[in-house]
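Hi everyone,

Forwarding the result from last night's run.
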Amino acid sequence: MPITIEPLGGLGNQLFVYALGLTLAERLATTVEADLWRFHKYPWHIYELDSFPTHIGRTYTSMVRKRVGHRLRLGPQAMTRLGFRSTGLWGHLVMESESTFDSGILDSKDNSRLSGYFQSWRYFEPVADQIRNDLLSPIHSSEWLDHTRRHLASRGEWVAVHVRLGNYTQITAMGVVDSGYYERSLALIDSLHGKLPVAVFSDQPELVAQMTCFRGDRFEIVISPQNTRAIDTMIAMSEATALIIGNSTFSWWAAFIGDKPGRTVVAPRPWLDSKTYDERDLLPLHWYTVGR
């Protein structure tokens, strides 16, 4: 029986649940399926795991879940918080009860359905290299990506900075990382690598261009066409000599897929404004953290 994943959010969050699903499927010698019901009337993101070669054998949208949605989750969610794993009409429902790594989830049975974000590299260590390689081979690579990679490579060593705005300005639990974090992170990178050219990526480049911390000849605001896929921007960022990420799983993955010895990654601490979120298992131990 397959492992079923329920992706939600942008590409970064979709990748975490996929990575866990693949880990379980490899251990159980089964396949991965994706139920896309959560994207029904979802205004912020689209399904993007089809932008690179995956090991998902089938994607579908369960009509019952589209109609009744989260009302199905109230009972199982309460049970999960109490330490139970629920089994029902759609198989073993595995829901995360907290933001930190739960080793018991790796013991999930076949026919499990994964519902949650599962934001930890520890869930998918056995398949990490496989996912890196797949992500770096996008389906239908765009002209923008090819041009941007050549352009940035021509600058020699360079630093990528990611500023996540968008709907974070509407979700108080997330919190927007301010310019002070980027100033301190740039000072750290400069002390380790010298003053390299900086390419700034953002979902709202017009606002980033107004931030004083990114003014000067060494800074370039990377502007992509409106229809640019998330994976193209992720790959472009991943090739930087050093990376200053925002509190975004999108730039987390850009840092992760390009990780190698001698490469510097800086992440914000705390990760979110939410007091209940614990990032201890999200950030790899060799990454630097700088206070927000």
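The longest strand covers residues 264-269.

Cheers,
N.
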